[in-house]
Design brief:
Elements: E1 2-5, E2 11-14, E3 21-23, H1 26-34, E4 41-44, H2 69-75, E5 79-83, H3 89-95, E6 101-104, H4 109-122, H5 126-140, E7 151-157, E8 162-163, H6 169-177, E9 180-181, E10 203-207, H7 218-224, E11 229-233, H8 236-239, H9 244-262
Parallel strand pairs: 3-4, 3-5, 5-6, 7-9, 7-10, 10-11
Antiparallel strand pairs: 1-2, 7-8
Length: 263
């Protein structure tokens, strides 16, 4: 056993080499596989669906917001990996009676890279984590301030309309690209846009997760902000941190370059 401190500053005693790991966050589950830890994962949430073909046979321990504690108990994990935004404090406290629960926090691009190092450290894969981070940094280098400095609103939900605000990974990516996040100046991390006049975006991005925005929703959004350019975008490339960031970089580059030509 060894002592570690998680992203919330909690001191934990974890196995030097965890053999039975349960992962409770989709992007972190995918990252663990990318680090070569897949054969040691014994449980995941129903939303942990990547990498496809490798994850399907793993037992499901409920959802990210409501973990089946009894199911976790039967799997006898020696390490549980949770995420501050995805998993509730109540679940973390209950699961801590079964095995050490390491919680990560990702509210920015920088914290996303740090979380990869942390996952590598607690699973005995620091070299693999370092290499993955270097690949992501190289992929994101051409993206910094690539966009024209336009005001952007990123919607995550419909009726009520909810946007990604400050202290979110999405906000960090929007800023890194060179845009100005309109919702950054509203109270809360995911503010509800009850009055459309409170924001004046030049660009509105409609994600396909968690709400599945589609082209058919563009007319109703155009009524709210008639002067804005509106685009449907892949939500996973804006909100999944970890190994998917490497895959997201070329998509974001193409998207920004396409919008730059119009906006």
């Amino acid at each position: 056993m060894r002592s570690v401190t998680d992203s919330l500053g909690r001191c934990l005693s974890i196995p030097s080499w965890a053999e039975r790991i349960i992962s409770l966050c989709p992007s972190q589950t995918e990252t663990l596989f990318a680090l070569g830890v897949g054969e040691r994962i014994v449980g995941r949430t129903r939303y942990c669906i990547h990498p496809k073909g490798q994850i399907d046979s793993l037992p499901v321990v409920g959802g990210t917001k409501k973990v089946d504690v009894e199911m976790v108990q039967t799997l006898q994990p020696d390490l549980i990996i949770a995420q501050m935004e995805e998993n509730s404090r109540e679940d973390v406290e209950r699961l801590s009676g079964i095995a050490p629960v390491y919680v990560t926090k990702v509210e920015s691009y920088e914290e996303a890279l740090e979380s990869i190092h942390r996952l590598g450290d607690i699973t005995g894969k620091p070299t693999e984590a370092k290499y993955l981070v270097s690949e992501i940094e190289a992929a994101f280098a051409p993206l910094k301030n690539l966009a024209k400095p336009k005001r952007v609103l990123y919607l995550t939900w419909r009726k009520p309309y909810i946007a990604a605000g400050k202290a979110t990974y999405i906000d960090s990516i929007i800023t890194l690209l060179g845009w100005i996040n309109e919702a950054h100046f509203l109270p809360g991390r995911y503010p509800t846009i009850e009055d459309p006049s409170l924001v004046s975006p030049e660009i509105v991005l409609l994600c396909d997760e968690p709400y599945p925005f589609k082209e058919k929703h563009i007319p109703e959004i155009q009524i709210l902000w008639p002067r804005a350019e509106i685009y449907c975008v892949r939500g996973d490339y804006f909100c999944w941190y970890g190994s998917r960031m490497k895959e997201a970089a070329p998509y974001l580059k193409e998207l920004v370059e396409r919008i730059n030509k119009v906006a």
